[in-house]
Amino acid sequence: MYYPFSWLKSLLRLGGYLLVFAAVGWYLDDMLLAITLGALVLLTINYWQLLKLNRWLWHSRKMSPPTVKGVWEHIYEGIYYLQRRNRNKRKELGELVKRFREGSEALPDAAVVVDAKANIIWCNRLARLDLGLKWPADAGRRLDNLIRHPDFIAYFHAGDFDHPIEVPAPTNPGKTFEYRIMPYGEAHLLLIARDITRVSQLEEMRKDFVANVSHELRTPLTVLHGYLELLPADDQVDPFQAKAISEMSAQTQRMQNLVEDLLVLSRIEASSERIYENIVDMPAMFRQLEAEAQALNKDKHHTITFHINGELKVFGVETELRSACSNLVFNAVHYTPAGGQIDVYWDTVSDGARFTVVDNGDGIEQNHLARLTERFYRVDKARSRKTGGSGLGLSIVKHVLTHHNSRLEIASTVGQGSEFSFLLSQELIAGT
């Protein structure tokens, strides 16, 4: 405990001590001898107290200080107070570390903490089970020396942790792990490894199912459509039969279009083609696309204008980019009321190359915009059926743009029109 006037008491004691020895010197008529004796006694007492303090700090098992008087009493109490406070802080810190470890052990994912030099600082129980780490034997070892998959090592050293990576588990190649790395603190990294084997298997099953079913449907649909074209459809002979044949032909064609879109979507999802390996001549592609759009526009009589930068080529997959651009242009032709205005833009901007389709159609309500790229989602089901839409066009666009590290941007105002656009990064522009 701190005493506010303890220093005054210590000074008074020291003064009294000096007065005693001054009196002895006066009595013996040798003041120098008396002061020397007094100083020696004072030094001896303080040195003895220092020895006691050293023994208490380093050798005694007792937390409470020895009983002393004077200024040394306050020194002992100050040290004792600091020890108690530090002990309480260590206890609180220990409880905090204990709760953190208990919480981390309860995580459903493997967690590993590494320092700036990629040395392992700590890992939880699942990291030891799923990643094959040994604790504490692997403490201080480099993480990239223990997880040796080439894709993980490349991802780890690249330093771009915005997106996770999926690689086989180090202890079981039959499992697939999603690795996510998050920087924190002073150049520390937290690695989270999640078992996504089941999710990956279900996704592969879905892709295979869609691709196989779509492929198997093509042949019977082609046969049906061929025989329907051979059947007579004369309104004068049998109006009901003619209407039935016409409706069946239209629905068969619509089914064929749906199957073709499903196959395109499956090919894009399964594509492993690298976007940096080929240069796409976008101006040439847009010239062909303009001709197709004008042919599709015969009944609608839109004013379609292409504003194309004739020198702008990009790296990418030509079939995929053509599919994305044509879907956006053809959608504008299909869903803009007759006599509308459609403008198509392809040019450089400050941060890359932008493709934009602008129409002055009916527009789309804001609550629909976030879901437009979902498979089979339709704003107006009746109008989609009338135009023969499959509900997969914008989903195809989304997957193409994801493959090209881009995304679809949609802006629309009801009664004024819509704008669909995407941006390809500066790195994808050929010749930069």
From TrEMBL:
Q: Which UniProt keywords apply?
A: ATP-binding, Cell membrane, Kinase, Membrane, Nucleotide-binding, Phosphoprotein, Transferase, Transmembrane, Transmembrane helix, Transport, Two-component regulatory system
Where primarily located? membrane
The UniProt entry, under Gene3D superfamilies, shows:
1.10.287.130, Histidine kinase-like ATPase, C-terminal domain (3.30.565.10), PAS domain (3.30.450.20)
UniProt keyword annotation of Ribonucleoprotein present = no
Note the Pfam families from the entry: HATPase_c, HisKA, PhoR
Note whether Iron-sulfur occurs among the keywords. Answer: no
The entry's localization annotation reads: Cell membrane
Q: Where are the transmembrane segments?
A: 12-28, 34-53
> What is this enzyme's EC?
2.7.13.3
One of the entry's Gene Ontology molecular-function terms is:
protein histidine kinase activity
Catalytic activity of the protein? ATP + protein L-histidine = ADP + protein N-phospho-L-histidine
Entries under SMART domains matching the protein: HATPase_c, HisKA
Histidine kinase domain location is: 212-428
| NCBIfam families assigned | phoR_proteo (TIGR02966), PRK11006.1 (NF008235)
What protein name does the entry list?
Answer: histidine kinase
Q: Which organism is it from?
A: Salinimonas profundi
